[in-house]
Task: inverse folding
């Protein structure tokens, strides 16, 4: 992985129990502790790309959301076994 944001997302998820999620701000704070707010847009953008590829699930209130149409506070987790891309979710 050449993208440091992608690498940090998967690094943090690898340290969590299966099915557990992370907040995008945790990734941003890890990469730029002093100006993490500036990183949030980039972290969310990378997460959307990974979700479209089916490598990541974006959730809101614990439920998968469509990576092409979501707003507000989100969390990131790895797909469960047999779970399709989030664009199939409602």
Result:
């Amino acid at each position: 992985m050449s993208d440091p944001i992608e690498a940090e997302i998967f690094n943090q998820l690898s340290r969590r129990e299966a099915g557990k999620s992370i907040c995008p701000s945790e990734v941003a704070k890890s990469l730029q502790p002093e100006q993490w707010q500036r990183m949030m847009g980039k972290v969310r953008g990378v997460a959307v790309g990974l979700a479209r590829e089916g490598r990541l699930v974006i959730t809101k209130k614990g439920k998968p959301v469509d990576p092409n149409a979501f707003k507000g506070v989100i969390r990131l987790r790895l797909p469960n076994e047999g779970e399709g891309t989030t664009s199939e979710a409602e």
